[in-house]
Structure formats: structure tokens, C-alpha cells
Amino acid sequence: MHFTSEQRLDDGVLEREFTLGEIPGILWTPATASATATASAPAPLILLGHPPLGLRKMYPRLAARAQHCAAEGFATATIELPGSGDRPRLPGAEQALADMRRALQAGEPVADETIDALVLPLVDRAVPEWRTALDALLALPGIGGPVGYSGGVISIGTRLAVVEPRISAAVLFAGSFIPRVMYEEARQVTIPLHVLLQWDDEGNDRQAALDLFDAFGSEEKTLHANMGGHTGVPRFAGDAAGQFLTRHLR
Questions:
Q1: What is the spatial distance between Cα 101 and Cα 107, in angstroms, rounded to a whole number?
Q2: pTM (2 decimals)?
């Protein structure tokens, strides 16, 4: 992991951009981290998931989430997803995206083959990269477990919850199409989950999200559904998700 820049945000949170091989990312640590996060009491870490729109476009929302987490004493980090930002595009992704948009504009259901072509290559590439980033982040002084995941793409979060034993709890954003194979993987998830669902999300199959929630094997799982579109998550819903992570990571 190579840090390329750093700055202090208005609330004192330290923001550091990094590269991990070809993968760009950002790490945020609380202003109090140097005083309170020691080898014996490191700051818990939350991995911030996001849609494949590029870190530059997502930065304002990610930074706001990171600052909210920092106020609770958490370090947070995110990485550029495969095929996003300046990274090479994934083979077949542009065609799958065009097919998805064509179906939505025509008011037709998006074909399973299109969803698979759009989402599964992203999951297959992103999850190993998240695990590599987690290795490097946990090796840094003052950062440690437990580890949480918060955000989308929900299929990435689901796969991580299955294969990464260091993740203790997850907040999953239900706002993306779901390949059918993910329902079987969801049955293997056992960590506590808090799922956020926007009821009127224009680009999300609501029933698919409800079916995925039903499939999760976790004994503790909460669905927090609110009226409104994709970016209309109310503040109190975000606060409830934060309280969930604080309860399980503290």
C-alpha cells in the first residue's frame, strides 16, 4: 500500500489516498485516532461499498459517510471498483449496461443473462481486491478489528460476508440488480445484517431485494425500508444503520 496524498478535513478526520498495485483507494481515520488507537486498542474498520460509478463521482457521499463513522471512532476505507474510474473496463460490461438500459426504457424486465453479465464479473473481480485491501489496511498501525462492511453493490457485500471471516457485521444497500446465483450464496451468510431498501428505487427490482433478504441465513437480520428513490435514504435510516454497526463493532 502506497499513500499518495493526505489532508485533514474540517472535523480533523485524516483522509489519505492510496494505491494498492493498480487499485486506487481512500482511507479515513478519526481525528482522535493518534491518541486513542493503539496496538492494544486499534480503531475498528468499516469498508465502504459503493456502486461502480467511480470514486471521483462518489467522493462527496463517501466522505460524508466516512466523517459520520469517524465521529463514532471508526476508521473507514474504500477502493475503486474494477472497471470504474480510470481502471480498464470489464469485458462485456458496456454491452450488458446498454442492454439493461434498453430494457428499462422499454418498460421490460431485465433478462437474467444481462444481470449476470453486468454483475457477476464485477463481483468475481471486486471481492478478491477488497480482501487484498483488507490485508493491507489491517497491517497499518492503529487500525484493527472488528471489521464491518457498509454499502453496495449488494452482491459484492453478500459474497464478502460469505468468504471473508474478518467481517463481523454488514449494512447492505439494496439498490442494484441481483444475479440468481446470489440467492444461494445468501443462504451461507451468518453474520448480523442490516439491509437498507428504498421502496421506490427506479433502478432496483424491489421483489428481488426482498427475496434476497429472505434468503440470508443470518439469525439477526433487519430490513429497513423507506419510501423514496435511490438517493433518497432518510437521515434517520442512515443513523439506524450507524447504530447497528456501533452495536456490533464496539
A1: 10
A2: 0.94
